[in-house]
Amino acid sequence: MRSEFVFHEGDTSGELLRTIKEYISRYPNGVTVVVEPFKSRRTDKQNALYQLYVKRISAQSGYPTDAVKMMVKDMAVGYGYPVEKDEDGEPILQYGNPIPLSTSKANVEEMEKILECCHMIASKFDYVLDDR
């Protein structure tokens, strides 16, 4: 089972230590602690732009928006976009392929990959994403 704790600059070491001790006490065999930098969740602006791009690609291609979203995310996985993982950290597969992470869980950098893939698809098929 995996748990996540987020500590920010300004949080006291006492708070961190108390939380970790409480968590460790539940597991007599110990735990593994991974420290990684905090990544900001996607912005509202990124999400709005993504939704707009998907609608425009859908309208110009004739594909449903859900299909466009899946196509964009599948493409983004090839450029390092993360996939959904199970409790053990293994990719969750559907029809033998990893399921891309839901954009609602994406951070700023991951959403940049999604938006870039929208641009690549638009460029390849001459779709217009802006208000020309």
Describe the protein.
The chain is mostly helical. The protein has a domain at 44-125. The protein has four helices and two strands, in the order αααββα. The chain has helices at 13-24, 44-61, 65-77, 108-125; strands spanning 93-94, 97-98. It has a two-stranded antiparallel sheet. A hairpin with a 2-residue loop joins β1 (93-94) and β2 (97-98). The chain is elongated and about 60 Å long. The mean pLDDT is 90.
Short description:
Helix content is 46%, strand content 3%. The protein has 4 helices and 2 strands. The chain starts with 12 loop residues before the first helix and ends in a 7-residue tail after the last helix.
Q: Averaging pLDDT over every residue, what do you get?
A: 90
Structural class: mainly alpha
Largest sheet: 2 strands, antiparallel
Order of helices and strands: HHHEEH
Strand order of the largest sheet: 1-2
Distance between the termini: 50 Å
List descriptors.
single chain, 132 residues, mainly alpha, two-stranded antiparallel sheet, 4 helices, 2 strands, 46% helix, elongated
